Amino acid sequence: MKLSSWLKAAAGLSCMALAGIGMTSCREAYTPKPRAYIRITVPEKAYRDFDSAAYPFTFRIPVYARFEPVPVDDQYPNSQWADIRIPELNAKIYLSYIPNPNIDSCLVGTLLFIQRHMSKATGVDEWEIHQPEERKFGYLYHIKGKDVASPYQFYLTDSNRHFVRGAFYINSVPNNDSLAPVIDFIKTDIDTLIQSWKWD
Q1: pLDDT in tens, 45-59
Q2: How far apart are CA 79 and CA 199, in angstroms?
């Protein structure tokens, strides 16, 4: 082998070796990043009384929420519907009020609404509401699970003339791990609504 051929081959091998070293020496060891969620800021807690001649009940509503009547479907002419909107958190509580209800039918309807979320649920906690002195009976349901669209639902009745059902939703793709601050925050508002609820 001639010297010039040997030098060319050695130079080629040296260039390839240097390129290989250069490509691999600058790499840092891969470290997976921890999962993070955006920081959610919630408003300061404060409440006001909701009292309207159009509705046979009163309760405490957050000052950062709006009570908005919703047109009723012709199928339910005696019902009254409303949303409690919390625009800052893109959330709402749907309310359905039924006067002079068939209690059994209303309870079946409530359980059917809860059943719709069970395919995504990991469990359900329930708390009984039993306040005879206030003529207030019902249940609060916590539907647990990362992908549940409505984590809290409830109903209240006086067992005779009034029935109201509530369902809490956040207007986003369900991921209750990242939405936990909002869910916990609004759970306090739901508790306040239930505790302060009075029939006229």
Answers
A1: 999 999 999 999 999
A2: 16
What's the pLDDT at 180?
87
Note the residue count of the chain: 200
Beta 66-70 vs 80-86: how paired, if at all? antiparallel
Three-state DSSP string of the chain: CCHHHHHHHHHHHHHHHHHHHHHHHCCCCCCCCCCCCCCCCCCCCCEEEEECCCCCEEEEEECCCEEEEECCCCCCCCCEEEEEEEHHHCEEEEEEEEECCCHHHHHHHHHHHHHCCCCCCCEEEEEEEEEHHHCEEEEEEEEECCCCCCCEEEEEECCCCEEEEEEEEECCCCCCCCCHHHHHHHHHHHHHHHHHCEEC
Contact 58, 200 (CB under 8 A): yes
Domain 47-199 has CATH 3.40.1000: yes
Joined tokens for residue 118: 């069970």
Q: Which residues pair with 154 in a beta bridge?
A: 140, 166
- Does the pTM surpass 0.85? The reply is no
Dump pLDDT digits (tens) for 84-111.
999 999 999 999 999 999 999 999 999 9
At residue 22, φ and ψ (nearest 5 deg) are: -65, -40
